Amino acid sequence: MTSGFRSCDILYTAASCDLLIPEGDPQAYEAALQLTENRQKYPAFRIPMIVIPSTISNNVPGSDLSLGCDTALNEVTEICDRIRQSAQGTKRRVFVVETMGGYCGYLALLAGLAGGADAVYIYEDKFTIKDMQMDAYHLAIKMTSGVQRGLILRNEKASENYTIEFMHRLFAEEGSGLFSVRKNIIGHMQQGGSPTPYDRSLGNKMAAKAVDWLVCQLKNNTKPDGTIEATHPNSSCVLGIIQRQYKCTPVVKLKKETNFEQRIPKTQWWLELRSLLNILAKHDSTYEEE
Fold this sequence. Notes:
The protein has eight helices and ten strands. The chain is an alpha/beta fold. The strands form three sheets. Strands 1-2-7-8 form a four-stranded mixed sheet, with helices on both faces. It has a four-stranded parallel sheet with strand order 4-5-3-6, sandwiched between helices. The longest helix has 24 residues. The radius of gyration is 22 Å and the shape is elongated. It catalyses: beta-D-fructose 6-phosphate + ATP = beta-D-fructose 1,6-bisphosphate + ADP + H(+). Pfam families: PFK (PF00365).
C-alpha cells in the first residue's frame, strides 16, 4: 500500500487481511501509528505492520535512508551540472536552484556537496538576510579571483519569506556589475526516471527483510484457532537503515523523535555535513569535532 491512501482504505484493508505493509513517506508512518494506537478500540488493527520508507525527501523517522532518495539525489546533481555547463560561454554567472523535499533539506544539502555549491539554504539550519549578504560577498570575491560560475541551492520550504524570487533579486542587486544571476526551479523532473542500482538493490533487500519479519510475527502472534492477535508494540515497526544496519523500530517508540507538523525527524544524521559544505566552498569556517 502506498502513502496516497485514504482513511477508509486503511480501515478496509486492516479489517480484511492478516498483515499490513505501508510503503511511502511520513504519511505512511503516521497511518501505521494511528492504527497501532487504536488497537485496543478496534481488534481488526491487531495485526503485524511494517513500514517501508519510500520517498525522495528522506524524511521518514527510523531510517537514515529511504527508497528513492538516491535516485532523486543523482538526478538533482546531474541537473545542477547541466545548468552550470549551460553558462560555459558566459562570464561570471550565479545560478540559484530550488529543489524539492518539503521541510527536509536532504536533497539540497547532499546535492550541494556533490555538485560543489557555494551555499545551501535549508529549513533545519535557520538563516538570515545577513547570511545571504555574506554569501553574496563571498561570490563577488570568487568572481574577481577567476571563478566564472557559482551555484546556490535552496530547499523549497527553507523559508516562508526568503523565497527564490527574493534571493534572486538580492544576489542580482549585490552582484550588480560583478556577476549575473539566474533562478531555476527544478520541479518534478528531479524525481528521476529509472531507479539507480543502489535503490534497486535496497528495494530487494528491504522486501526480503520485511517478509522475514512478517513471517516471524505471524508465527508468534497466531492463536490456536488461526486468528491473529498482535498487541505488542514490537509488532508494528518501521524497517530502516540505521548506521549501516537494517533495524525494525516500533512506531510508538519513534513518536517522540518525530516532528509531525513539518513531517521530519527531530534528529537527522546528514546535518553534521553542513560545516563540511562551507569548508569545501572555502567559507570562513572552523572544523567541528563531534
